[in-house]
Design a protein that fits this description.
Elements lengths: L1 E6 L5 H4 L1 H4 L5 E4 L15 H11 L5 E5 H6 L12 H8 L1 H8 L4 E5 L18 H19 L5 H13 L2 H21 L1 H4 L5 E6 L7 H15 L6 E5 L4 H13 L5 E6 L16 H11 L3 E3 L7 E6 L12 H7 L3 H13 L3 E6 L8 H9 L8 E3 L4 H18 L2 H29 L1 H4 L12 H17 L1 H4 L2 E7 L9 E6 L2
Parallel strand pairs: 1-2, 1-3, 3-4, 4-5, 5-6, 7-8, 7-9, 9-10, 10-11
Antiparallel strand pairs: 12-13
Helix pairs in contact: 5-9, 7-8, 7-11, 12-17, 13-17, 18-20
Length: 501
């Protein structure tokens, strides 16, 4: 049995638990104990993590390493630290020590470009983001537009307004940390240039076409192009799914295979849609996902091992938006999409669904249609959570691991987990609790009463009720449901299911 050592991006279930929940493909997965990981803004035990890696790397067939965890202690601490560049680069040298201890293993790493959200909220950012977050985002956007000669007169006026009101110490702190992180990232790319690591992903968290992240991307891409690292690196919108994609790559390469993946869209225009929080057309991001997982995109069904069915309209909109009917009912064909899924299954293809019609939850219309056609438990992989890329990385990993391992129990178990979390919680229960429960408790979306408090108990109750009433065939497969709120908020949940034998 192959052995894979993984250092996740942080301690949330999507990064820490999902890799362990995937269908088994004849490998063992070693992940540091949770006691070494951080807790949201509290960094992980970086010295302890380093020692754990060095103690466990001997004999590993592959190492998957989050450099953000190794260097900063996690994704959120990477946005908050006060360290000098020299200290950060010294921490990164653990990469060299790991390679020295195990020269034969496959070695994959990833390190994020720091994000700049377009809202004012300090939940995952420095405290000053509560009052300056939106202005910082616009400052970056206008700076980028100015550099490209695309700044309008209206933009100029607003840029001048922001320059006047944005505190200099806030701008200095934010830009200073970005420069440090970017310098460390570019320095670390030498590890793929000199062969210390085999593949390096640079995920863009909450990306946009213009702004700080996009400007940083230009400088990173310059290094990649100058050194012709196109085939050993990937840079695309991603974050919490990157570890899963690299897990799929590890299994692909350790098994000497290259899964052939055919992509089918619910709309002829879907491939060109730029999803929310991303900076490029959906089809281009999917190409990176497939290459990064160790696969090959193919363009006909007969030659495919895996079908990636992508649910997207001609735009990404909310149901309440004026153009929703045109984008989702006129220019998307769910009947054909569902019929194709059934046909691909009949052709003995592995079918994976990327439900990216919206952000942060399943498309209920699609799932109820799959339910009517008795397909929910016949497909092999599904995801519909958070950003488009988070969804795609999750469902592609699940499909690839099933392709190599044919683990039916793991396939069904993770499918049920995704339906309970993506449809049950994100699609319905979360909003219900936020609107009807939290106000009466003096709580809100970003502050509940602990990981296992009264809110978690109410979420569990409503989730069981919703799934039993709306998806009884799925609920019949589940023996128990347990819930935690890992970051003491409503954005994500930790669903633990016990599946009936």
């Amino acid at each position: 049995m192959k052995q894979i050592v993984m250092l996740p991006l942080d301690e949330r279930p999507c990064n820490y638990d999902y890799p362990k929940m995937m269908p088994n493909a004849d490998y063992s997965l070693l992940i540091p104990p949770k006691t070494l990981m951080g807790d949201k803004k509290r960094p992980g035990d970086m010295e302890g993590i380093k020692n754990w890696l060095l103690e466990n790397i001997d004999g590993a067939d592959c190492c998957i390493l989050s450099l953000d965890t190794l260097i900063y202690g996690g994704i959120v601490p990477s946005r908050l630290h006060e360290e000098k560049v020299e200290v950060l680069l010294e921490r990164a040298k653990t990469v060299e020590l790991l390679r020295e201890k195990n020269p034969k293993m496959k070695f994959y790493v990833f390190q994020l470009i720091m994000r700049c959200p377009d809202y004012s909220l300090s939940d995952e950012e420095p405290d000053y983001y509560d009052f300056s977050g939106r202005d910082l985002h616009l400052y970056g956007r206008y700076t980028h537009l100015e550099q490209t000669g695309s700044l309008t007169e209206t933009d100029k006026q607003d840029f001048n307004r922001i320059k006047e009101i944005l505190p200099s110490e806030v701008l200095e702190d934010f830009i200073g940390r970005r420069k440090k992180n970017l310098q460390v990232l570019i320095e670390n790319l030498r590890y793929v240039k000199d062969g210390t690591v085999d593949f390096f992903i640079v995920p863009q968290d909450d990306a946009a076409v213009y702004g700080f992240t996009s400007m940083d991307q230009i400088l990173v891409r310059k290094y990649l192009k100058e050194n012709f690292l196109h085939m050993k690196t990937a840079m695309y919108p991603s974050a919490d799914d990157t570890g899963l994609i690299l897990l799929g790559r590890a299994v692909s390469e350790l098994n000497g295979g290259r899964p052939r993946i055919y992509v089918h869209y619910a709309s002829t225009k879907a491939e060109s849609v730029v999803p929310w929080f991303e900076d490029r057309p959906l089809g281009e991001t999917i190409k990176y996902h497939i290459l990064s997982v160790g696969g090959q995109q193919v363009y006909s069904l007969p030659e495919a091992d895996i079908v990636l069915a992508v649910n997207m309209g001609s735009e990404m909109l909310n149901v309440s938006d004026g153009g929703y009917v045109k984008a989702y009912d006129v220019e998307r064909n769910l009947a054909e999409f569902t019929a194709f899924i059934r046909y691909a299954l009949e052709q003995k293809k592995i079918v994976s669904i990327g439900d990216v019609a919206g952000c942060n939850g399943s498309d209920g219309e699609l799932l109820h249609l799959l339910q009517k056609e008795d397909l929910l438990l016949k497909i092999h992989a599904y995801a519909g959570w958070n950003t488009s890329s988070n969804t795609l990385g999750t469902t592609i990993c699940q499909a690839v691991l099933y392709y190599f391992g044919r683990d039916e129990w793991g396939r069904k178990s993770f499918l049920l987990h995704r339906y309970y979390e993506d449809m049950g919680y994100m699609g319905y229960v979360r909003k219900y609790i936020i609107d009807n429960v939290l106000p009466g408790m003096g709580l809100n979306n970003f502050r509940v009463d602990g990981k296992k408090g009264k809110v978690a108990k109410m979420i569990r109750k409503e989730l069981i009720k919703y799934m039993t009433e709306n998806f009884p065939e799925l609920a019949a497969e589940v023996e128990t449901v347990e819930i935690e709120q890992p970051w003491n908020r409503m954005f994500e949940t930790d669903v633990k299911l016990k599946i009936k034998k």
